[in-house]
Amino acid sequence: MAGKEITDARVWAAGAIIWRENPAGRNGATRAKRLEVLVVHRPRWRDWSFPKGKLKPYETMRACAVREIREETRLDIVLGVSLGWQNYFLSDGKKKAVHFWAARVVDAKSPVLRARKKVKPAPKHEIDQIMWIPAEIALGKLTYERDVRMLRKLLKFQKADALDTQTLIVLRHAKAIKRDSWKKGKGPEHTRPLARSGEARAQMLVSELSAYGIDSLRTSPWRRCVSTLEPYAKLTGVNLRRKNGMTERSYVHDANWLSNYFREMIGGLQKNRAICIHRPTIPGYLQQIKSAAAKKQFVKIPQQDPWLEPGQMIVLHLTKKLAPKHRIVQIEIVNSDFRS
Question: What GO MF terms are annotated (predicted)?
Answer without folding.
Answer: 8-oxo-7,8-dihydrodeoxyguanosine triphosphate pyrophosphatase activity
